[in-house]
Amino acid sequence: MQGFATTIQAARRTASAHRDLLKLVGKPRSVAETGLSERLLLELTARHLLGGGVLDTLQLSRTLALTGPVVDEIISLLRKDALAEVLGPRPGLKALRYQLTDRGRAFALESLGKTGYQGPAPVPLEHFVRLVEAQTVHATRITREAMHDAFSDIVINRDLLDSLGAAMNSGRAMFVYGRPGSGKTYTAQRLSRMLGGPVFVPHAIAIGEEIVQLFDPIIHHPIERQPSARGLTFDEGHDPRFVLCERPTVLVGGELRLEMMEISHDPVTHLQEAPLQLKASNGVFMIDDLGRQRVSPVDLFNRWIVPLETREDHLTLASGRRFPTPFDLILIFSTNLNPGDLADEAFLRRLGHKISFGTLSRDEYGAIWNQVCAERGVSCAGDVLNHVIDGLHKRNDVPLLPCHPRDLIGIALDYERYQGGSGRLTSAALEAAWHRYFVEG
User: Are 203 and 120 in contact (CB under 8 A)?
Assistant: First the structure.
């Protein structure tokens, strides 16, 4: 009976969270409901009119990502200040068109000196903070059953999965290490599917009168069907300033620099863009190849220690204004090096879970091999696989790693096609692939 009551309470909390999210992404019907200042909206609209020349209400609504009533209110304010004038509709259409006056063009050009941003209207920082909290990665309790089900289509050690699942539940940083090709990156990239449903991502954030671009099409992948999400139904659609996306996964390697974790500012266009960790909000952020960056691992660790403990980061705008942002993500450090060579034991202890990706057993290697063969539509006799494991790996003292079957089979098939072969995997083709794949001293 107590378990049933607990289930009911959990269901009520979930329903309450859904209602809160509905409110956060509801469409604003007035300038006041956008949470933005009149000045910011007037300047943004003026820049759109400056770039577009003559635009009607529908065009402005689309480019600003604001509802018709809000756009009408902005236009009224522009006209009241003699910044815009109305033109007649195009032939056969009813929508009125608008253009800037001479005073309006001067107003728009002056605003370009502060920012060149001409995208959809932003959302206030305070609104973004509440949204991130409502979509937190820490709300989903990951179970062993769910973890194993999510990885049921790939060959992976069950104990390793259990270690990853426990780390995901901890809310702490995860440190994974092992040989190159042991599956660290591929496995970590799949972890975001464990964090619940899709999330709403704003095009941009307003901190006072300053705008920071957030949505990144490389990182954020929109979901085409948007009438419902996480069990929510949107009778009138959601605020178009948000894009419903898959939970983000940000992967960065040796190219990472400390300045990439701060707001970038273009001195020519005056555009400001959010750093990688803010774009990864409500998702996974993986720093791969740790130890290969130009910045030392200790400096990278130091950058994250406080945000990990407080779940709050602090960023600085081009104007010098410093402000707090939510730090809601699963942070993963990954390296091919010995963790002891990157930092001392006391420091590593603060990072939480350390998970080793080892080599494969013979059966695991064979299962991956057969899986790749099935995907490529090729046949391979059992004695050929035994030759690869015993005659190549064992003879050359090369450990069995998840990357080897796909790579060796691919090169062997290239060799077979060149030789005009039958498309079957042969020992000779795999011997040739082996010598082309590994660097021989």
Answer: yes
HSE of 430 in the Cβ direction (CA atoms, 13 Å)? 24
Please, which residues have CB within 8 angstroms of residue 344's CB and are 6 or more apart in sequence? Answer: none
Which residue is it, tokens 């002056």? 110
Q: What are the tokens at 31?
A: 């300038």
Which residue, among 355, 407, 425, 367, has the nearest Cα to 175 in the 3D structure? 355
Cross-strand partners of 178: 357
Model pLDDT for residues 324-374, shown as the tens digit of each residue: 999 999 999 999 888 888 877 777 777 778 999 999 999 999 999 999 999
Residues 12-16: contacts with CB under 8 Å, at least 24 apart: none
pLDDT of res. 419:
79
C-alpha to C-alpha distances, 69 to 33, 57, 74, 82, nearest whole angstrom: 11, 10, 9, 20
Decide: 215 and 203 in contact? Cβ < 8 Å: yes
Q: 318 is written with which tokens? A: 């081009």
pTM of the model: 0.85
Question: In 134-270, where do the E strands start and end?
Answer: 174-178, 199-202, 204-207, 210-213, 228-229, 232-233, 242-245, 249-252, 264-265
Q: Give me the CATH code for the 125-357 domain, please.
A: 3.40.50.300
CATH number corresponding to 37-121: 1.10.10.10
DSSP notation for 271-330 = -EE--HHHHTTTEEEEE-STT-SSS-HHHHHHHHHHHHHHSEEEEE-TTS-EEEEE--EE
- Cβ atoms of 44 and 83 within 8 Å: the answer is no
* Amino acid identity, position 13: R
Residue with tokens 């990182």: 219
Phi first, then psi: give them for residue 302, nearest 5 degrees.
Answer: -60, -35
- 377: tokens are 């539509």
Domain boundaries, given as residue ranges, for the chain: 37-121, 125-357, 362-437
Identify the pLDDT of residue 407. 95
Question: How far is residue 100's CA from residue 103's CA, in Å, rounded to a whole number?
Answer: 8
The token duo for 161 is: 């999965």
**CA Rg value for the chain:** 27
Measuring CA to CA, which residue among 252, 192, 194 is closest to residue 221?
A: 192
pLDDT digits (tens, 9 = 90+) for 46-69: 999 999 999 999 999 999 999 999
